[in-house]
Amino acid sequence: MAQRDYAALLASLYELEAAKGMDFTLDRVELTLRGLGSPHRRFPSIHIAGTNGKGSVAAMVHAMLKAAGWRVALYTSPHLVRFTERIQIGGREIAEAEVVELALEVRGAAQQCAVELTFFEFVTVMGFLYFARQRVDLAVVEVGLGGRLDATNVLDPAASVITTIGLDHQEFLGNTLLAVAGEKAGIMKPGRPVIIGRVASEVEPVLARAAADAGAPAYWWGRDFSVFGTPAAQFFGFGRTLGDLTIALRGAHQRDNAATAIAVTHVVGDQFAVPESAIRQGLATVYWPGRLDIVHRKPLVVLDGAHNVDGIRSLVRELPRIVGSRRVHLLFAVMRDKQWQPMIEAIAPLATSVTVTSAPGRRSERPEVVADVFSSSCRTSVVRDPIEAIAAVLRRAGDDDAVVVTGSLFLVGAVYPFFVGRGGDAELLTRSPSSLHA
After folding, report:
1. Displacement of CA 322 from its chain's centroid (Å)
2. In this predicted model, what pLDDT tens digit does every residue of 71-110 receive, in sequence order?
3. pLDDT exceeding 90 applies to what percent of the chain?
4. Could you point out which of 12, 201, 318, 411 has its C-alpha 20 to 30 Å from the C-alpha of 215?
5. Residue 71, pLDDT score
6. CA 243, CA 21: separation in Å to the nearest integer?
7. How far is the C-alpha of 187 from the C-alpha of 182, rounded, in Å?
8. What is the pTM of this model?
């Protein structure tokens, strides 16, 4: 396969995103999958939704199951740097040649069914077909957006997970936490257990009612399982205690995510045994870049893909423990469909200076508009190109300062190769030992 074939294929997929945008219905996915022989029915799955934390929980569950010896797939979105990150088996990304072959097959099946798939629908069908053909033991699947009408919700999973409930994508999911909870509860399936992470008490009745209506046994953070302690975490739940856990991902919220992930391994344990040693190994080695990720030491550079107000607030809580007394130079970009003003209100007080840039993609908010809001709080500049922007911020920052890149996972993905290629510490950019993420 020529590299140009893969590049042309990706260009055509991204054209789908630009042309069709987000159009939520399960009909097109179901028809296409049926035309391909229903590959999504040929492997068990764990289906994970949530406003924040779903990717981290998915990565943790995948790592623990892999450590237990299972042939486990992982489907996540969006990708950070490479499209192939979205579709993995045991930590191995799908090959570019396999992407091209599968895409041609999915395109033919969609045409045969007379449907036009959106970008995310197309990639989801590809992933499910790949997992079935590769005969995985099970797949860990992250919801793209919402839950009820997300393309992944054609699965009949062994277990469902709802990590957190917050306000994001309000134009699709609703303007209240109760509305968002209702959409995410749509992944619950009859008779299938659902694990519910740390959610606000006001949404618990919505989730409890949805679980009861679906006949889905529900297991709750703080009721059936919980986690305490720092830096070593202690898990309690299901009649067991796991002490002195090392979690490779930084942040107090990752301890909550780890507790949710451990709960998942418990409820599927009859089918897919995960011994304590595998739980410990998975949590200690899980790799999920771009989330409180340190990629350079002098200055200290932290990449965090927080892209909504709850994510930014988590970042703000954690930053003092990471950067200490260092001055913070912020590189920021955000999508215009986000409620980004509260994000700025939360993070601006920590910044000595802010450089606003553009995130890749058509949804990026104009930097000048964002900079105008930041300017009342601290010194602010605009550099539209993200690579030029990170270079400018690094020139401004002293060795004893900190640089924080946030506001959009797409921005983090844009600058990550800069550090891989020339601006980072090599040992921080590999699948680093847990000591780097303590």
Report:
1. 21
2. 999 999 999 999 999 999 999 999 999 999 999 999 999 9
3. 83
4. 201
5. 98
6. 46
7. 10
8. 0.92
Convert the pLDDT of each residue in 371-420 to its tens digit: 999 998 889 999 999 999 999 999 999 999 999 999 999 999 999 999 87
Domain 293-437 classification at class level: alpha beta
Q: Taking the C-alpha atoms of 370, 371, 377 and 379 in order, what is their torsion angle to the nearest 10 degrees?
A: 160
Contact yes or no for 331/411 (Cβ under 8 A): yes
pLDDT band at 172 (very low <50, low <70, confident <90, very high): low
In this structure, the number of other CB atoms found within 10 A of the CB of residue 62 comes to: 30
Domain parsing of the chain, residue ranges:
3-285, 293-437
Phi, psi of 124 (to 5 degrees): -60, -45
- The sheet carrying 300-303 orders its strands as 293-296, 300-303, 402-406, 328-332, 353-356, 379-382
Q: Which of 51, 54, 44 is nearest to 260 (CA)?
A: 54
Residue among 250, 232, 287 at smallest CA distance from 433 = 287
Residues facing residue 424 across a β-bridge? none
Q: Which CATH class is domain 3-285?
A: alpha beta
Q: How far apart are CA 146 and CA 183, in angstroms?
A: 6
Residue 182 to residue 260: CA distance in whole angstroms: 20
- Distance from C-alpha of 328 to C-alpha of 343, rounded to nearest angstrom: 16
CA distance 103 to 100: 5
What would the mean pLDDT of 128-141 be, rounded to a whole number? 98
Question: Which tens digit of pLDDT belongs to each residue from 374-385?
Answer: 998 889 999 999
